[in-house]
Design brief:
With about 110 residues, this protein is an all-alpha fold. The protein has a domain of about 50 residues. About 55% of the residues lie in helices and about 0% in strands. It has 5 helices and no strands. The chain is rod-shaped. About 15% of the residues have low confidence.
Amino acid sequence: MQVTFTANTAPLLIQQMVDFLKDFRPAPNAEETHATAATTVQDPASAPSNAPASATLDDVRARFSRLISAGRAENAKAILAELGATKLSDLAPVKYLNAIQSADALLR
């Protein structure tokens, strides 16, 4: 690509470059990024997990559907039994997350 400057356009282009550079902020270098990352590391126990913070019956139903599709229908029944239910609609809402976590453990 060839750029040609003339006496008429040079001052305008220079002014546009100056205006651009006034707002320009360089990207942090690798050392600054590493230092920032080191200061923001969280305790692993407080790190977010793959399990949702709250769950609905539809969430549990979707996870169990995946479990059954993977050929683990008996495991799905066993999870429900461990949680005191014979079918999903009998599962207590406070146990939805436990059901999802148990299903996820089997899907890995």
